[in-house]
Amino acid sequence: MPSREGFTLFEVLIATALFSIVIASFITILVSVTGVQVQQASSAEVNQQSQFVLQEIQYYVGHASLISMTTDAATSTLMLRMAASSSDPTVITASGGILYLQQGSGALQPLSSSKVTISNVSFTKRSNPPSHDSVDVAFTIAYNTSNIAQAFSEMFQTSVARVSAASFDSNLVPSTTAMWSLGVSGQTWTSVNGILYFSGANVGVGTASPQQTLEVNGGVRLNTGAGEPTCSASQRGTLWFVEQAPGARDSLQLCYENTSSTYAWATIF
Description:
It is a single chain. This protein is an alpha+beta fold. Helices cover 20% and strands 30% of the residues. It has one helix at residues 9-62, and strands at 66-67, 77-81, 90-95, 98-103, 109-110, 116-126, 134-143, 153-161, 191-192, 196-199, 202-205, 214-216, 239-242, 251-257, 263-267. The strands form four sheets. The chain has a five-stranded antiparallel sheet, covered by helices on one side. Strands 9-10-11-12 form a four-stranded mixed sheet, with no helix packed on it. The relative contact order is 0.09. The model has no long low-confidence stretch (mean pLDDT 84).
């Protein structure tokens, strides 16, 4: 007679238990791998957008003519003056978790997408004479999700220096009469428009290396039709050229102190 022996109940329970353990292990591994992939996707999105935002901020600060902000005062809006009127001013600010860029009178342009939220935005202008000004930048960027497993955020802090020379689109005037100076001692300008040059205490017109207090590469013209003012201590040493009417001889006058300690104009020719 053929044998009809089968599995005992105990053996079935053991096999079922082993199968359950294997399935549970596979599920645990699958959940772990899925969790890692989700975290990596969140991290990649945050890193990608944060790098783009930082590059944009660096670009616009680097090419700005002026950082139009109060020094050492943190603010959520970055205001930059630009040489081109179409992009002046350039403003970077956060609203509703998104960082926006506005140039001139143009519309707001998002620098970040809705996949992330940007918060705690802070811009602080730093003055570093004689170097260019810089901006301290700080913000927090997080993956935009309500799923705890996908949550990922990073905080960024950096400093960006302005690299372009200042350009002005209007007259450069002081805010108060006779209160401000252009330049400081020990940090002199090299030239103005490539015409007026400075070398220590010497000034050159048309010459880049003046050897005297005033050196002019070319002629010096005294041109006035008015009569000379009263010669006095404040006018002492002044040359005054007087143009006469047609047919009359012009004259060149010098204000000097004579032997009687009075001041008078002497005709040189």
